[in-house]
Amino acid sequence: MTSLSVDPKATDATKAAPGKSRAEKALARFHEEDRLGEGLDTRILAGLWPFIRPHAKWLVISLFLLLAGSGLAVLQPWLMGRTFDAFDQPDAARTLMQMGALILVLKLFEQSIAFPQVYLMQLAGARAAGDMRAHVFRFLHTRRLGFFDRTPVGRLVTRVTNDVDAINEMFASGTLNALGDLVRLVLIVVVMLQRDWQLALITFVAVPPVALGVMWTRRRIRDAFREIRVKTARMNAYLNEQISGMAVVQAYAREEKSSLEFDDINEAYRQANNRSIVFDAALDAAIELVQSLCIAAVLWYAGVRSLSDRVSFGTLVTFVAYIEMFFVPIRDLSARMTQLQSAMAGAERIFQLLENNEEDAPVPAASEGQAEKVEKKDESIAFELDHVDFEYKPGVPILRDVSIQAGKGEKIALVGATGAGKTTVASLLLRLYEAKEGHVRVFGRDVKATQRDELRKKFAVVPQEVFLFPGTIASNIAAGDVEVDEARVVRALERIGALDLFERREGGLEAKVEERGSNFSAGERQLIAFARALYRDPPILVLDEATANIDSDTEARLQKAVWAAMQGRTALIIAHRLSTIRAVDRIVVFHKGRVVEQGNHDTLLAQGGAYARLYQLQFSRGEAHAAE
């Protein structure tokens, strides 16, 4: 795997053109990625080997056929030269027929092995790329949530799609056929030296400048393709944002501004592609020029030599054919080098992603023995935060010395102003984030000593913003199950009183759910989320502003069923509307990341503290709205 580092000489994305606005500079700063340092191709190829190894047999067969084809191709000009040399011999006609038949057989055999060679090469490449894409996809599922908070979605999509495709194209375009090109070059050199070493040396004089040109171009093409990868990721990220936020874009009439910003991104992408095209075209034209000069030089020198030493016509034909054949693999090598540089740039970016060590909820090996001791501590406590501190960004505390205990079956509500840290408590219990200080325990066991899946199966979360997957109503309620248990789906909907609502839809429980559930109202999506939680039937239910998007009639219909569903299980309710939590066992009041009050509704009102002020504020607003 390549060593990756930030290039200190690289142009920082924040150094935008002087004429650009502050918003555009911020956009570039957010979407641009760190430039990658120089990576050794051999190390990158070594990183690719684990994905190629399972399909190496097809690759080996393909390379064997490639070498055989290269040998057959080199043999044909030599036979043509022998044929022309036999023109002045008595048996020229017979020799011509024999050589013609032999060349025809060799050409047919060469072409007959070309198909399996190309097919097997692409088969190995497609399967290796498929394995890599699946590996990157699985890897993303194991990253900590904080990683996704600061990484644009489009950038990650580029890794799984464009960058892997660039590696697959290395096989599809025959880039690995460069090995056959090298073998062909060696064979041509040997035959040319054997045929006429003086003419051969004239041809070889052109090799050093071509080699220097290839080496000079190689670094610049790699840089160009790195730039293309960066601009592609930025474009994908911007497109994802604009499409996801189309409602806001249209509501605030930002279409023209968004179009101008996209023009800047698109122009940068076009310029990056143009640089790679210029280098590639210049190298190809230079090789064509050198090839023509070599043919002219050989013909000139043959004319000079013919004044004193006759050069056979067969030798000239052979050399002209070999010169053309000699520069074909060189030209192919330059084209394949271009594709190889694109693949290496894509591989670098993938390996940079795979070097991320922010694993989601890892369990240290040393914790296994300790876990058993902690687990026996007190299983009557459903969950507990013990003097917990937490911050999303260093130096910006969210929770400060928070301690909360919830017994089995207890219903606890968290209230407080926006940003006080209520939702963060649920995230710490699920170990979506790590506490900076203190301990978080679920059923007496520290979450850091509990396997991720084992921990999260104890919870069902009903969030304020519900995410629905494309599929059906039933498959969304049974999210996480490979096979949908229709009886459980029906029971879950019955318990929240929504079975008749969804059965009336066309298709019933098999009604289609479009992307993000856009064909359902906010209230219907919320009801599906409640049913999803009850389908899972966990010991702890987390309701995060779960009724915020439901109208009053739907909320009244739902409240009774929700309270019935919470019987026999622990519930953590995060709420802004205090009228919905009067009947909970305990209310925990947050203020600026600290727990300032705990108690039931009546007790907290009697204390006249923070909760009483929040309640009076909401009650007075409710009266004002009612009066209107």
TrEMBL record:
Gene3D superfamilies: ABC transporter type 1, transmembrane domain, P-loop containing nucleotide triphosphate hydrolases. GO terms for molecular function: ABC-type oligopeptide transporter activity; ATP binding; ATP hydrolysis activity. The chain crosses the membrane at residues 58-80, 199-217, 313-330. Residues 60-342 form the ABC transmembrane type-1 domain. It is a multi-pass membrane protein. Residues 330-357 form a coiled coil. Its main location: membrane. It comes from the Bacteria. Keywords: ATP-binding, Cell membrane, Coiled coil, Membrane, Nucleotide-binding, Transmembrane, Transmembrane helix, Transport. It holds the Pfam family ABC_tran. The keyword Hydrolase does not apply. It is found in: Cell membrane. This is ATP-binding cassette domain-containing protein. It comes from Polyangium spumosum.
